């Protein structure tokens, strides 16, 4: 060997040996202030960004650390972040760390609404974090119900797990009952659950909260304008559990009762650990079976989901593969009849706590108007509710590129199906109303009408309606009668929807001197289709409805069937919507977080977004054939089936806009910071604009982009035993497109009224506080005081007729904004010491206007939740949860007059004066629930 070779070998050996002998191990134990060992804490060593998770004994260990100066950072949800600068020499280091309580998570890292992770205290946003412990303490009634804990967030979860409404700061006008997440982005791990929305197709259909959720980060307004796809009103981001460095898991079994003893049961499980070579995995999910909070003659919800992630960590980042398989059946509750405008009381024998008024279970096959020549049918069974399926798979990459460059890449593909089979509307229709007979689609259903119970075949009532067209009353001619001398104005609601979707967000981050620069691209593609068909159902109007088979049996004439054997009539004659759409949505964003001085940061974000909607919608007409679809002149229930004409109305519109948000954050100390933010956001129309507003007419104009302006000023304060955030806000909403649906009694058809464009403004204050006088007791208070005003608001009144001669436009400008309470808050107390924990929470919802005319007010109500938990061993735990323990009969929603096709805005002060005793439809909050949970950790 040459001298050079020997010298090189020596230097290489010396360097290797020196490096080997200089590497040390950093280990330690993590406790909270009560001495409880903390598992699943994230321990991070900067700047090399090596991280480990503490095990179930609170122990962590980082091996093979070279000499140098590092920052040791320890984070855990609900506890303050621990940070210490350490020097590594030639000896192993051991620490005993104590993490202080942080009930508002102000010292925890957040990623939602920010372009790079940062401490919540340093974030110039109004953000709330809910950890896994708090998530598990909530009674499992769906995603929206959990969000009631977010200050300033209005939630209507009275319909159940789906068909919910969520919004904040008065950004609410287009958040209707059938599309209640209009302004907000519901996300999983930073990407939207769904790219598109339209009637009966909102993201809550495809999201379930279970044991796989690590935490929820919620942004109200503000930076959502520049950090989310078409969701300027807020972001609700559920972050999943990550794999651990040792094998561990949890199984949780729960069972209980809701309402009048309806059983509910569920099992959750999660398991994960290392696979070797820096690979680790995590898999979990749940399955449930629930008879529902109200009384229905079928299982209300059943099904579940499986989620997984597979992670490979390396020195410069990680790559994660993840997925979700959701297969779930659930339903939604409609309204309950009430009388007494000043103090509503349940009417017609119904009950605010237990009545559901849904069709009972049966199986029917309704002709499919799209493929009538093939003899195709659509199966309909109202016990199915909505069958939601989601197959989502993705990859998430974090790569340190060197020289302070970082790349984040998140890509997801999802295939969704939502098949609705349920009833829509449950209004009272008097037997003196010709609609009760002509809704069948029959040409002249006058004479001897017979109603039979479809389940037993027995005759329920027989009547003569010969005089109703002259204004005379019907007469019973048999021994029986129908409950309340009426039937239910309801229809079978068949809606088949599907979507193939791609989502992506790519972000580059670069630190240059005092500037943290972020920029990138986000986008989504959705190929969606829908088919809607509606048929009338003859149903008794009583708390436990029965299907009715109806015939016309005039003396000396053949018997005419006004319904089929299941009680369905007017086959496919009420609704027909066969539409397809492609949505492409792309955005370029850039953000600079500039540290002007040591405590002062300036934040500026820009987002240019472009959205294209292209598709077509079939025109329809009643099927013209003697005897209807089946050719039988004695079956009048299939005479009005809507079929496509062969013509389509196309649309192809592009919306593009620039949004921006700018903020200042001044950090007085590690305990106190002040921020202010101004945002200009935009909301492009959703697909319902095309699907709902154009019936057999050309789609000749694009929708309006709504403009959202927001200002906020916030203070964040974090001391040893007290934490607080307070945010003043002003929000303005402009160009709100409003269209109601109405029923034309002459043609027995439903239509949408012309669009009205309106504006609103809301001003208020949000607050979130936590006080821990002792290490084992915490008091919390969060909520909002606000005032919403409809600065410009008109409503189109069609007067129950498609004829425009008697139409008028009502002006309600300067009225209070409906469904926005002046006050709402949550007050709670939690006790946690050693093996025992307990909590009590009071949710208060203030009085709200029930419609834009301000003619009817929904009274304030209170709901109390409680919980008690006991750790039998370090692995086994029992929890008892109750919700609405005092069975509050609060009213969450208002649907207007109790008549088929009516809506809330049809009720004015003049209407109430003229109809003081008429009934109307309200939606009460869900009744009491009790749940026992048994958890086993391993």
Summarize the entry for a quick read.
The protein is 5% helix and 55% strand.
Would you mind describing this structure in some detail?
With 938 residues, the chain is mainly beta. The protein has two domains: 23-99, Immunoglobulins (Immunoglobulin-like); 248-424 and 492-937, Maltoporin, Chain A. The protein is 5% helix and 55% strand. It has a 22-stranded antiparallel β-barrel. Strands 10-15-16-13-14 form a five-stranded mixed sheet.
Unreliable stretches (pLDDT < 50, length at least 5) are 1-21
CATH level 4 superfamily of the largest domain = TonB-dependent receptor, beta-barrel domain
What is the helix fraction of residues, given as a range? under 10%
Distance between the termini: 58 Å
User: Strand fraction band?
Assistant: over 45%
CATH topology of the largest domain: Maltoporin, Chain A
CATH architecture assignment of the largest domain = Beta Barrel
Q: What number of structural domains do the residues give?
A: 2
Integer-rounded radius of gyration? 30 Å
Mean pLDDT across every amino acid position: 91
**Could you describe the largest sheet, including whether it forms a barrel?**
22 strands, antiparallel, barrel
Name of the CATH first level of the largest domain: Mainly Beta
Give the overall form. elongated
Our count of helices gives 7
SS class = mainly beta
Secondary structure tally: strands: 57
Membrane topology: Multi-pass membrane protein
Protein name: TonB-dependent receptor
Domain TonB-dependent receptor-like beta-barrel: 367-879
GO molecular function, one term: siderophore uptake transmembrane transporter activity
